[in-house]
């Protein structure tokens, strides 16, 4: 347990407290957070007959058990079912709308949700139709629930469509697409294979993040930053391999030192990282050390369905293990808002107008329960 910090607010937030806190989510996959009941409905409507079960509760358990595999490759396999039912405009719009509702109900005020448009073309949709359907769902969600959601268009590492998706992200960046991402199996598919797409995005002053340091080690992080110019790192867990702890002394290697000095955000997803084997447990997750060393760490869900989690539950696990308090919760949240792919003034408005006042009110309520 850590020593008390001067002025530390001592009351540990409960899960209900965390749900009420204004939070920010940067790493969440649209096809990894579909409601099980929606998967069943969409499968029935579309004629998709490959689900392991049509009972929503049993299906929820199946997704979590299948994803809890110990490797990134096996973790990704259940996505064939959620992706399989998201092949129409109506399905994509519904999933995006429900995603916005679920995130808003968890107290999230701003989120960036990513998906791979190329995975939703099997029924004849165009890339543009996919993007517009998702944007429509999130726009309706914003009108009804007040949550703002920016989308990230993801290209798959093992496909040759990254330039096409990058251009799509630039085309729709004034309509709600805030950036680009590349994901999929890391081993054997380094980000430099898509260097032309990243060079194009930089020329267009567009934002992008790269999945790196999850299923592969330091070389993927180094390439994502130094060759490709990533604004953020998706996961980045293996940066811990460049940090040596010897008793009370901690030494950072050149890459880790660079990541910290440049304030490169790490989109960490604790439960998912344990499921894929990137971390052995929540207690042993590198987020604890990286937080203490002052890295730009953010907390995320990755895939709410597969990891059977919410952002509030991710925070609750970290609070339980690392004895985090309100100040830590706010620190992670401000980190995420600072790192969002929104214009500076809009980020500042959310930090100073929503996040900090929201946390201040929650702290005051806990300190004065009878007021």
UniProtKB/TrEMBL annotation:
InterPro entries linked: A_deaminase, A_deaminase_dom, Ado/ade_deaminase, Metal_Hydrolase
Domain Adenosine deaminase: 22-356
SUPFAM superfamilies reported for this sequence: Metallo-dependent hydrolases
Protein role: Catalyzes the hydrolytic deamination of adenosine and 2-deoxyadenosine.
Record-level Gene Ontology MF annotations: hydrolase activity
Cofactor: Zn(2+)
Residues of the active site: 214 (proton donor)
Keyword set includes Methyltransferase: no
Gene3D superfamilies (alphabetical): Metal-dependent hydrolases
Family: Belongs to the metallo-dependent hydrolases superfamily. Adenosine and AMP deaminases family. Adenosine deaminase subfamily.
Catalytic reaction list: adenosine + H2O + H(+) = inosine + NH4(+); 2'-deoxyadenosine + H2O + H(+) = 2'-deoxyinosine + NH4(+)
Species for this entry: Actinomadura graeca
Keywords: Hydrolase, Metal-binding, Nucleotide metabolism, Zinc
Site features described as Important for catalytic activity, chain residue numbers: 235
Positions bound to substrate: 29, 31, 184
Lineage: Bacteria, Bacillati, Actinomycetota, Actinomycetes, Streptosporangiales
Assigned EC number: 3.5.4.4
Primary enzyme class: hydrolase
Protein name, per record: Adenosine deaminase
Cofactor: how and how many bound: Binds 1 zinc ion per subunit.
């Amino acid at each position: 347990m850590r020593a008390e910090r001067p002025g530390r607010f001592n009351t540990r937030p409960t899960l209900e407290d965390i749900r009420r806190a204004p939070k920010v989510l940067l790493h969440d996959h649209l096809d990894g957070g579909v409601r099980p009941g929606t998967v069943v409905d969409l499968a029935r409507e579309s004629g998709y007959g490959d689900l392991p079960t049509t009972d929503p509760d049993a299906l929820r358990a199946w997704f979590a058990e299948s994803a809890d595999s110990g490797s990134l490759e096996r973790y990704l396999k259940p996505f064939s079912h959620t992706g399989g039912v998201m092949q129409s405009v109506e399905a994509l719009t519904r999933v995006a709308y429900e995603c916005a509702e679920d995130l808003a109900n968890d107290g999230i005020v701003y989120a960036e949700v990513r998906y791979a448009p190329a995975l939703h073309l099997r029924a004849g949709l165009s890339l543009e139709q996919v993007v517009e359907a998702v944007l429509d769902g999130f726009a309706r969600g914003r009108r009804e629930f007040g949550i703002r959601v920016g989308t990230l268009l993801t290209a798959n590492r093992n496909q040759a469509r990254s330039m096409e998706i990058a251009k799509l992200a630039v085309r729709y960046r004034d309509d709600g697409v805030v950036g680009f991402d590349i994901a999929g199996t890391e081993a054997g598919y380094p980000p430099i294979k898509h260097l032309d797409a990243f060079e194009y995005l930089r020329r267009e002053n567009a934002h992008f993040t790269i999945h790196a340091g999850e299923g592969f080690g330091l070389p993927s992080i180094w390439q994502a930053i130094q060759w490709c110019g990533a604004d953020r790192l998706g996961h980045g867990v293996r940066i811990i391999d460049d940090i040596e702890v010897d008793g009370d002394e901690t030494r950072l290697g050149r890459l880790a030192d660079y990541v910290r000095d440049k304030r490169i955000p790490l989109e960490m997803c604790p439960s998912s990282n344990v499921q894929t084997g990137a971390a052995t447990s929540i207690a042993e997750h590198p987020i604890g050390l990286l937080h203490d060393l002052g890295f730009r760490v953010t907390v995320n869900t990755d895939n709410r369905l597969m990891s059977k989690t919410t952002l509030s539950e991710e925070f609750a696990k970290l609070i339980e293990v690392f004895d985090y308090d309100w100040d830590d919760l706010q620190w992670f949240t401000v980190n995420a808002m600072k790192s969002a792919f929104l214009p500076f003034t809009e980020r500042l408005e959310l930090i100073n107008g929503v996040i900090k006042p929201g946390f201040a009110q929650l702290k005051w309520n806990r300190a004065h329960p009878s007021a």
